[in-house]
Design goal:
Strand order of the largest sheet: 1-2-3-4-5-6-7-10
CATH superfamily: Divalent-metal-dependent TIM barrel enzymes
Order of helices and strands: EHHEHEHEHEHEHEEEHEH
Largest sheet: 8 strands, parallel, barrel
Oligomer: single chain
Radius of gyration: 19 Å
Mean pLDDT: 95
Number of strands: 10
Low-confidence stretches: none
Strand content: 15-25%
CATH architecture: Alpha-Beta Barrel
Length: 284
């Protein structure tokens, strides 16, 4: 069963400038009919553990489950030691437990586009992530929290499969349906391959934007711009079908990742309402 929710990243810039509070985000998510909120721990970094327990209670009163997202594990290519990443995971685990989250989403510390011509550095990052996950696994198991590594525009499908296999234990994938395009992959086969390893993930949309020359005669290239589901060109029906097939009836928490947000624009509810309606129709 696919459970639909929203990520606090939809409100990121407004949370950062303090024009909206996480409690308000929970209320708006409940009004939208979301089943859960994926809480990026960056957005509650100044809160004490007791405050996070109160936030979880507030979510529960609104009928919302709270799931936890950590951040970058570190940068192996720059000499970070696995101990750095393990320390970060330990801190996030404590906060995930306070939120009542059974999962903790984490990400590597690079984007493939930045290292495309340097396979040896990509391999260094892969080995670093494996080491961090292996060393952090006992603490995650003790906390009864599953570590999920997001396909964060970094590793290929084969590299992800090797990562999870080498990390071992209950480690899995946090599956973003759209991120494969940033690694120049077709999202559909990526979703099919990684869905069996995933328990939660993100969904968004994207458009292509031409970058013309100064005289407009031709274009220098194009950019990929993220949008809310239903606002772009992603084949969401096919992607959702591939996800369902790969899950084989297992529970999966899918949150809208609204990266296209602005500090001075309160448009989350306006855009999330049709996005969630579309996703509900695809889930049904």
């Amino acid at each position: 069963m696919i459970h639909l929710g929203v990520d606090t990243l939809c409100w990121h810039l407004r949370l950062e400038n303090r024009s909206v509070a996480v409690e308000v985000v929970l209320e708006q998510a409940a009004e939208l009919g979301a089943e859960f909120v994926q809480v990026n721990l960056h957005h509650v970094r100044e809160r004490e553990i007791g405050d996070l327990r109160a936030l979880a209670a507030r979510g529960d009163s609104l009928g919302l489950r709270l799931l936890a997202s950590g951040d970058f594990l570190g940068e192996g290519r720059h000499g970070d030691s696995p101990a750095l990443g393990v320390g970060r995971v330990h801190g996030w685990l404590q906060r995930a437990v306070a939120l009542g989250s059974p999962i903790l989403r984490v990400v590597s510390g690079f984007y493939r586009a930045d290292l495309m011509a340097k396979p040896e550095l990509i391999e260094a990052e892969r080995r670093y992530v494996v080491s961090v996950l292996q060393e952090a696994l006992p603490a995650a198991d003790a906390a009864r929290v599953t570590l999920l590594l997001e396909n964060h525009s970094d590793f290929t499908v084969d590299e992800y499969c090797s990562l999870v296999a080498e990390a071992g234990g209950s480690t899995g994938v946090f599956l973003d349906l759209i991120n494969p395009i940033a690694a120049l992959d077709d999202p559909v086969p990526v979703v099919r391959a990684l869905a069996p390893l995933a328990r939660a993930g993100h969904v968004k949309d994207y458009v292509f934007e031409s970058i013309p020359t100064d005289d407009g005669y031709h274009r220098r290239g194009f950019a990929v711009r993220y949008r809310y589901p239903g606002e772009g060109v992603a084949d969401l029906p096919r992607l959702m079908a591939s996800l369902r097939e790969g899950l084989d009836g297992r529970d999966f928490h899918l949150s809208v990742e609204g990266l296209d947000n602005y500090a001075d624009v309160d448009d989350q509810r306006k855009r999330l309402a049709p996005a969630l309606a579309l996703l509900r129709s695809l889930v049904a």
